[in-house]
Structure formats: C-alpha cells, structure tokens
C-alpha cells in the first residue's frame, strides 16, 4: 500500500467522505487525460472537437482541466461522435 493510500485511509477516519472525494477527483483526472489525448491524436483544437461532438467548447475545456464530473452519457456521446467505443473497468483499489 502506498503512502497516499495510507493517508487517504487515515484521513477518511475523521472525514467519512474524503476517500470518495479523492476517488471522484481521480476519475475526473483520468477522463480529462483520455479526452485530451483523443482530441490531440485527432489533430483538433478544442473548438473543432467540440463542434464534432456537439458540445460547447467550454464543456470540452472543463472536461480536459478536470473540473467537470463528466457523465458516462457525455463520454458515450464523445465516443460515438469520434467512432470510438467507451469501456469502463473496475479494478482493485488496494
């Protein structure tokens, strides 16, 4: 177990929602990285990508900077518009 995992467990003892908040931030970060990688691999600006997927450029920016709790619905819409398949995995936490 990493020091970060130990810290999260310890902090969660005094703040029961802390581990859940950390996990949501990790999900946001992973989604932001994947969406940005997809857009860049397609050679598109945020504006071009937003137009392709039918979302405002500000939504793409919020996804990419990790400030949006992006839904599976939005990720699915991005996948469909870019001819990709969205997959979700459950892996052991620790």
Automatic annotation (TrEMBL):
Pfam entry (one): HTH_3
InterPro entries noted in UniProt: Cro/C1-type_HTH, Lambda_DNA-bd_dom_sf
A molecular function (GO) term: DNA binding
Highest rank taxon of the organism: Bacteria
Residue ranges of every copy of the HTH cro/C1-type domain listed in the record: 35-91
The name this protein goes by in its record: Helix-turn-helix family protein
Lineage: Bacteria, Bacillati, Bacillota, Bacilli, Lactobacillales
């Amino acid at each position: 177990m990493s020091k970060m995992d130990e810290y999260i467990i310890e902090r969660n003892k005094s703040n029961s929602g802390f581990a859940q908040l950390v996990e949501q931030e990790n999900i946001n970060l992973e989604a932001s990285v994947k969406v940005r990688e997809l857009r860049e691999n397609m050679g598109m600006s945020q504006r071009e990508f937003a137009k392709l997927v039918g979302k405002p450029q500000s939504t793409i920016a919020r996804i990419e900077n990790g400030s949006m709790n992006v839904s599976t619905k939005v990720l699915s819409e991005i996948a469909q518009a870019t001819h990709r398949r969205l997959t979700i995995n459950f892996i052991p936490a620790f």
